[in-house]
Write the structure tokens for this entry.
Amino acid sequence: MEKTKYSLATRELKKHKKSLSNPRLKILEYLCYYRDHPTAEQMYVDLHKELPTLSKTTIYNTLHALAELGLVKILNFEENKARYDIITEEHGHFKCQTCGGIFDFQVEQKLIPKGELLGYKIMERNLYFKGICKKCL
Amino acid sequence: MEKTKYSLATRELKKHKKSLSNPRLKILEYLCYYRDHPTAEQMYVDLHKELPTLSKTTIYNTLHALAELGLVKILNFEENKARYDIITEEHGHFKCQTCGGIFDFQVEQKLIPKGELLGYKIMERNLYFKGICKKCL
DNA sequence: GAATAAAATTGTAATCATTACAAATTTTCT
DNA sequence: AGAAAATTTGTAATGATTACAATTTTATTC
């Protein structure tokens, strides 16, 4: 597990008077360890094994709370379900249409658009590619 | 209404042995005229007035068929519902969090990612910004 | 440390966009 | 016109997410 993000997150939670409850810690642990942009359902199925009382609503609540604090990014590029990312630094996502895997990639420069958005306040940038990954080709 | 796209689309439909039925033409007309990235629901409500027999399933069927032919792009960046775009050339979308409007913008160069995606086949690029538009600021 | 207040969690039911599907209608072909 | 194929329609199902009230856990006060 990546220690840095985890301890940053717990510190941030305490700072905002949020308790470090077992569900929250387990969800954070999961996000820090499995960095494969899981869905809420995936987290539920996996975490339910070691924490049988955990409910789906708690997963959603916690993820929203973490997103509120800027500790998690909610990815909305799939047709029906959201994915959750503990890496909040700006980066792109590539989805392989064959294996379904989602890969991160860095972007050259700060995506600056042409004139149209002059005077617009840009608060969030999302870059999402689709195609076939090296392994599947 | 933008004639070019519309006639291109009808030509393309004929080429693929798809009938130019009334629902299809009306949906195309709508997309060409209202280029504000409507949801299926919006199209249903509006088109239902002049074509009362039109069903939602037909809207979905038609939009998928048009997407299949590359005449419509399905935009999946909102949390819960899809939006549909008749402009299929590569461009970015900006969503204003205040008024909810969605604005197109051009991108400087062909979004080329750093090394990570070397050897990956990129088939679709999506760029989506969020913030506050000039008018709302 | 026990009592109380506040926060968090849980399970169930509701919501809402989208899809499945079978019947009815329209279009195309002969 | 008549048969076959394609399209449309309405209703019911699906599935992710949210609403909500009851219960449990955590924090606070004495």
Observations:
- Residues 28 and 111 of chain A are 30 Å apart (CA to CA).
